Task: inverse folding
């Protein structure tokens, strides 16, 4: 399959991290960055929560080697993308389609890590004629039955199911976190490492990973925390995604020692897609992807080749 690439938007003179922007119908601004091979097979990659387009900087070199063009948009309310009131998970594929049209890309793959996982799944389900393969790593899965697992551990149930509906509480939590990330990023990163646990400690201890994680989060919450609060609420509500509409390859990796997302919900997400066979990574935590980026992108490229 030949993938159309707009030479105007693939201009290598634009620094990779610099946001490119598109004004959508209605006037809302959507920002993105690009990494990898600008003439390669296009993959729309979706950041975690909180996060931003900068998350995929460390994927630049592997993507170049594999011949993949990574298009990394800021979601509404993160980075340079305008906040979108009253949005739903099912609204995101419309933004993806608009950006793909702007870039003269007809068909493409999608990938999402952590909080980006639901958006990749929504895009695969709602853009079935355009999305040719999907990859999820450590995704947030559906949290409400029957889409989600019938029960969650108490702490996960409080944080992911109950708290998002208390907007003032969530706003307070994330407002404080934003202030601390800006004032004392090293201290916040140490807290992040403690939360992640021993499986992730060696990965997060690497300077390039620390720099990437901090840059992605700080840029994501730079305009404020409305986008973060909104996303946690969206995750805790019914997703109403037609998973049965996904017919193309759907890959999912989930570490069984992940402390950042509910593991049972992530695996339940895989079970909702008929052709998905989740890879359960024994002993792996939430940040496993930073040691396996090329492996994941390589598997996605193989799926793109098969679909082509």
Result:
């Amino acid at each position: 399959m030949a993938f159309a690439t707009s030479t105007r938007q693939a201009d290598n003179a634009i620094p990779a991290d610099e946001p490119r922007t598109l004004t959508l119908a209605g006037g809302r601004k959507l920002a993105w960055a690009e990494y990898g091979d600008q003439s390669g097979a296009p993959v729309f990659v979706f950041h975690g929560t909180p996060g931003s387009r900068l998350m995929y900087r460390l994927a630049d070199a592997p993507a170049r080697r594999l011949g993949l063009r990574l298009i990394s948009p800021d979601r509404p309310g993160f980075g340079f993308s305008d906040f979108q009131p009253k949005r739903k998970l099912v609204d995101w594929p419309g933004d993806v389609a608009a950006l793909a049209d702007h870039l003269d890309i007809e068909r493409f793959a999608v990938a999402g890590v952590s909080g980006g996982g639901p958006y990749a799944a929504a895009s695969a389900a709602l853009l079935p004629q355009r999305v040719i393969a999907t990859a999820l790593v450590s995704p947030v899965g559906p949290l409400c039955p029957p889409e989600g697992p019938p029960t969650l551990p108490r702490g996960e149930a409080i944080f992911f199911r109950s708290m998002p509906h208390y907007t003032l509480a969530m706003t307070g939590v994330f407002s404080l976190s934003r202030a601390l990330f800006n004032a004392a990023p090293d201290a916040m990163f140490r807290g992040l490492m403690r939360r992640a646990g021993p499986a992730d400690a060696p990965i997060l201890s690497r300077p390039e990973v620390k720099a990437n994680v901090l840059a992605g989060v700080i840029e994501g919450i730079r305009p404020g925390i409305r986008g973060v609060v909104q996303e946690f609420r969206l995750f805790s509500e019914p997703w109403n995604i037609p998973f049965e509409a996904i017919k193309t390859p759907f890959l999912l990796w989930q570490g069984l020692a992940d402390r950042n997302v509910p593991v049972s919900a992530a695996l339940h997400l895989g079970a909702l897609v008929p052709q998905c066979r989740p890879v359960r990574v024994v002993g792996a935590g939430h940040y496993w992807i930073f040691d396996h980026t090329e492996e994941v992108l390589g598997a996605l490229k193989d799926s793109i080749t098969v679909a082509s």
